[in-house]
Amino acid sequence: MLAAILAITIISGLFGLGLGWASRRFHVEADPVIDQINTILPQTQCGQCLYPGCRPYAEAIASGEADINQCPPGGETGIMALARLLGVEAKPLNPDCGEEKPKAVAVIDERVCIGCTLCIQACPVDAILGASKYMHTVIESECTGCELCLPPCPVDCIDMLVKKQTTGDWKWPRPEVASQFPATNPAITSGNHP
Amino acid sequence: MRNERLEQARNAGQHLHHFHGGLRLRHNKKISCELPLEQVPLPPRFYVPLLQHSGQEAKATVVTGEKVLKGDRIGYLGEAGRGCIHAPTSGTVKALARRPISHPSGMNGLCVVIEPDGLDQWKELHPITDWRKADPSLLRQRIRESGIVGLGGAVFPTAVKVDEASERGIHTLILNGVECEPYISCDEMLMREQPDSIILGARILQRAVGADRTVIAIEDQMGAVSSALKESVTRSGASDIEIVKVATIYPEGGEKQLIQVLTGLEVPSGGRPSDLGLLCQNVATATAVARAIAEGKPLIERIVTVTGSGISRPRNLVARIGVPIENLVDQCGGYTKDAARLILGGAMMGYALGSDGNPVIKAANCVLVLTEFDIRTPQPEMPCIRCGECARVCPALLLPQQLHWQISNQQWDDAGEYGLTDCIECGCCDFVCPSHIPLVEWFRFGKAEISSIASERAQAGVARQKYEAREARLTREKAERRRRMEEKKHALRDDAQRKKKIAEAISRARSRQDEEK
Amino acid sequence: MSRKFATGGAPHFPPHTSVAGVMQQLLLALAPGIVAYIWFFGPGILIQILLAVTFALGFEALMLTARKQPIRLFLGDWSAVVTAVLFALCVPPLAPWWIALIGMLFAIVLAKHLYGGLGQNLFNPAMVGYVVVLISFPQVMALWLPPSSIASHSLSIGETLTTIFSGSLPAPLSWDAISEATPLDAIRASLAAGNMVSEARLSPVFGDFGGLGWEWIANFYALGGLWLLWRRVISWHVPVMMIGSVAVLGLVSYLADPGSNPVPLQHIFSGALVLGAFFIATDPVTGCVSNRGRLIFGAGVGVLTLLIRRWGGYPDGVAFAVLLMNMAAPLIDRYTRPRISGQ
């Protein structure tokens, strides 16, 4: 009896030492997790997550202060990617933070714009071209759809327009699943696949 | 290392090798090869789509009401030979309308609607009759202007392929007559009835890219084809064209698989056949090249196989781009009683169309109509039982069951690592799956997601850079402002001190003056 | 006027196989072996199969309802039936009815559905069920019958049914008189008593190679397995490596010490080795994905079986060996990923 206890204790002690040594010997340097999180976030800098930008949100997630489901522009894909990165459960988007909307871009109605530059100052990625008393215009390819330019405009001339899908940017859709099998339900990951 | 591979590639066709996996499928080709080729008569309207290639729609170069001649250019995308589209007949442009364009999404696209005037008059043609002495770049330029794309189904712009090939140096031209997909027989009919144009196309392409020899690969079941081609080679007097028969295993007609069979080499993952000094073109593409150079005619028509259990009299037709598919079906005796699905392409890789009002496009190698019985699914989709059949038959040596898991669980990085982008979408894995998992649909979705995520990440990267630049600019401006304030304050203090010094000096001078008085 | 069509995905061919089809072919391949079993050891095995199938389908229906999944679809894939039959072929023919109940409870509910259902289980369900009853009820699981040719009393169908459903033999019979050690039991007992294998082989339960009767059953299993190979339902990698490694290791150990090791053929034709090689270790869900992985898997099962037979606490090690290799399968898969074309 004593022999058995002693044997098990010694063996587990040896294994523990071995694992500790292995974890040091085979340690892999990885990107700091904040940068990895920031890469997944969509960089809209919209503030819907209740943090002043994507990087502060990334820092809050890393420190455990914020949850992974606070980013509407990142959507379900973003939440799943964060869940996978951090090894936590994916969860639905927090409805208090907003809802996932299709990607839209801001468009300035040039008949109404008065050239006040308030929207230019508000845009976090400098996607609006213009100067004081000159016509302002949004550079479509650089607009991230964050909507931060809408509140400051005194004449309310900015609209968010959803890009219409053309044959040029059509993608093959996700196959329809006949019924809710765990095999095709992304919320349940498989057990025996590496 | 590359030199060894080039040497091995030079012997293409000498010995035949194998590729991994593949399936022996029932051909179903004979029924459409019994009748000779026939032209499709002019329909009342042509609907020529401006999107007949991958990427963005071409821009129309004609306006409503304009009169066009056969072969006039009506669409152009501008970028180095992509997307040239020509009028299939002479007539009037009735409209530029959004209509069905035989696209896999089922979405409409811009079409040039042409009403034929019945004269079918060509524009002024400029054949390059002395192509034997012409500069190869001139030949390539003509290919670019003639709107020629890969007619094997991939519709990749031939001019781009040929330009890139000639830059990298090609020693062997391979003409792909291995039509491995069941039901499709358009290339076989072309080789049987018009072999001279293929041989001519081969010789022109050879000159255009500087290749030393040509290998024409055909299936070993194509008996009449082999003799027709060989006679044509003899007639042309060319000594560097070989006909090679390869075993009939689907998907041997795939470019990478064919190259592996002929040379024993694998095209490097992410690379192209030109890495091995090879250029692969479909035989119909070669014919289109011959027509463009020797007759000056751009690509406006192709051979389409109209077949399947849903067609009364299957055959191959020569159809012009823009003819509605219903016209082709009518010419083949119409539908049979149980016709249930209309497919553009073959039974393995084709996509279903929602209506036969869709037009013939450059990619339309086959119109396949199947009955209910042919497309039945007795059992709905089940979970994967990991039987491994899919991996056994995959010609690209992938693990479809792993890829399926990864895509359905959105593990995009893993899927990329396991080679999802190397999938050629042949459908072999789908065909053998006992659980009836629609693997090809999953992989098409997965590939699209990976590329769209990559472009979204790239965009997000740009946005992050701009944001950081803006933050830096704001910080810098703030610092500038503070520095200027400091300077002003300093200047003010200096000013005050100077004034004090002057005042003191004045008062000292005054007091001295006072003293002297 | 244009005609409209309903669309569907590629490839546009009717499927030429199905999960149910694969399972049914497995059962067909087992049939010759089962017939031989009944011939040699009486109808008990048939009762066991029927009990196991009933309980398996019952538990499967229960779990599918609890998990809100389509019952007819999954019951119709015959996978529970295959699990039940393989389990029944491993238990003694006169085992009481609750052995099948407990076995199927652990096999279907625990090993299969609690891990996620068809295609998601980590361990072979039939083997999990068998191992659980083997460890929990060792005495009952050791009561094997001798082949009818040498049996002192062959039970009739009535007596068989009574035994199985009441849990004890009908009046004048006793277990000492009826049951007989299996060949592997005999070898083990003999070695423990200090005798050599050759002496143990003198017992009437031994046939030409393996056990009397057992070797014929193994032959028929092998026949069924070869038919499965021809039909491409299974691949050759696991059976060849499993039987091959047993043969090689058996040969080495026999040559090293003929006294305490039987000839390799004895190993191959004893216990559940042939059944395991063609039907159990080839289970696709719990095995390896790549061919190289399957070779390693098969070899592992063979080696572990021999080790357990020689030095372990149980006469036959196939079930334990399979479960141990199931544990290792994901890791083997990770390291035997095939090279992708062009890389």
SSE blueprint and pairings:
The complex is a heterotrimer of chains A (194), B (517) and C (343).
Chain A: H1 2-25, H2 33-40, H3 54-63, H4 75-86, E1 104-108, H5 118-122, E2 128-129, E3 137-138, E4 158-162
Antiparallel strand pairs in A: 1-4, 2-3
Chain B: H1 2-10, E1 38-39, E2 46-49, E3 59-60, E4 67-68, E5 73-76, E6 85-86, E7 91-100, E8 108-116, H2 136-145, H3 158-168, E9 172-177, H4 186-193, H5 195-209, E10 213-219, H6 223-236, E11 241-246, H7 255-263, E12 278-282, H8 283-295, E13 301-307, E14 315-320, H9 325-331, E15 339-344, E16 351-353, E17 366-371, H10 389-393, H11 400-408, H12 412-417, H13 428-432, H14 439-516
Helix pairs in contact in B: 2-3, 2-5, 4-6, 5-6, 5-8, 11-14
Chain C: H1 19-41, H2 44-66, H3 71-75, H4 79-88, H5 97-113, H6 125-136, H7 157-166, H8 175-178, H9 183-192, H10 197-200, H11 214-230, H12 237-256, H13 264-268, H14 273-280, H15 291-311, H16 318-335
Give a quick precis of the structure.
The complex is a heterotrimer of chains A (194), B (517) and C (343). Chain A has 194 residues and is mainly alpha-helical.
Structure description:
The complex is a heterotrimer of chains A (194), B (517) and C (343). Chain A is mainly alpha-helical and 194 residues long. Among the domains of chain A are: 33-98, Orthogonal Bundle (3-methyladenine DNA Glycosylase II, Chain A, domain 3); 104-166, Alpha-Beta Plaits (2-Layer Sandwich), CATH 3.30.70. In chain A, 30% of the residues lie in helices and 7% in strands. In chain A, a hairpin with a 7-residue loop joins strand 2 (128-129) and strand 3 (137-138). The two termini of chain A are 40 Å apart. With 517 residues, chain B is α/β, with parallel strands linked by helices. In chain B, 38% of the residues lie in helices and 17% in strands. Chain B contains 14 helices and 17 strands. Chain B has helices spanning 2-10, 136-145, 158-168, 186-193, 195-209, 223-236, 255-263, 283-295, 325-331, 389-393, 400-408, 412-417, 428-432, 439-516, and strands spanning 38-39, 46-49, 59-60, 67-68, 73-76, 85-86, 91-100, 108-116, 172-177, 213-219, 241-246, 278-282, 301-307, 315-320, 339-344, 351-353, 366-371. Chain B is elongated, with a radius of gyration of 32 Å. Chain B starts with a helix and ends with a helix. Chain C is mostly helical. Chain C has two domains: 18-179, no CATH class; 183-333, no CATH class. The termini of chain C are far apart. At the A-B interface, helix 4 of A face helix 11 and helix 14 of B.
